[in-house]
Amino acid sequence: MKIVIIGGVAAGLSTATKIKRENRDTVVTVYAKGQFISYGSCGLPYFITDIIKTPNELISKDAERLKSEYDIQVHTNHEVTHVDAIKKQITVMDKSSNNIIVDNYDELVIASGASSVLPSVKGLNESSCYQLRDLEDGIQLKAEIIKPENKKVLVIGSGYIGLEVVEALSDYGKEVILVNRSENLLKSYDQEISDKILELLTSNGVKLHLGEKLEEVGEKFVKTDKGVYEADIIVVALGNKPNTDFLINTGVEMLENGAIVVDSQMKTSVQNIYAAGDCATVHHLLKKKPAYIPLATNASKQGKILAQVLMGKNIIMPPVLGSNAIKIFDYHFSKTGLSEKEAIEEGYNVGSNFVKAHTKPKYYPGSKAIYIKIIYEIDSHILLGAQIFGQEDVVLRVDVFAACIYNKMTTEQIEYLDLCYAPPFSGVWDAINVSAGTVK
Question: What are phi and psi of 44, to 5 degrees?
């Protein structure tokens, strides 16, 4: 059997290497659009801040190692331009030579990832701004940031990548401007958390222009409906667009944004075609329709499970909760499950509590405030979501909440959950217990 995989990062290579571990005789060919493969894209903000010194530190396996260790043939700088599902063929352009290649497959895996959204705005294109979606982007942006003459940087967008870039640029001592159409920052979080992010950015010298509509992007300026702002570097981080244009007219079902709709075994609507990663949907435990949640955790899990499906195993991808985290200056933010807004949109009868607790007993040196918002069903008190911010011990507490949601636990059960206690780590009543105990 010959399996062709489009995409050479998390989902694509997770699928490829797992297939070879399952069955060495399976022929696996990977086509990657870019120069680099198998790298940690989530580490890019830390590469541009120089916490990670070189691009090679982000790369897990190169093409030569994949060939020698796994017998996987990887073609970099090869862009798939067309899929013929009837003939089971793909058309590929070798970007180095502009030659066109046609290849056949028995099973096709689409793991083509996503690109930065570039809306139809005058002057806005790939040459007028920088992005931070792949390693090539990171190398280009870092080269500009380290130039001393580039003192002022403007970031458009306040999602995860936008805010991570803002922090990275501030660490360099640059003057940073953030322009965002919405008044809310990190819109997947609720207002209480967005307000804290706003406070953090302001206190760290970031100049905010919120609620402004983008009208034009020039070489050294951005124009909105409320003003014109000059900058030496412009970075656009307006979200993700699945790389699926080459699938138009193939019969593959997609969401309005281009995300490929898959079932719990990553099967698409077309036989012998599968999809995984940032180009595909996932099944959310608490939502009633396919969800687009482009996270590396989802991509890696989908890839590993898909490989086993292709090898004949009856295994499924469990539903996800969209658990995520971000560091912004000296605070950590994390979320799992539904926000209050999302829960209302899904039709739940929603209650929520927002509480301040502490990471350790107040008497213990270094105890920090920690803020927790929980979202629950009013009638059953079953937990639907949790959001936390603080300066320490945030993410692992959200992980506990994620396990509680998976097990449909009530706030009463969570209040008395048997959690560890010792003054260096937690109070007798952990912040998790405290937050659940506020529900009556």
Answer: -60, -40
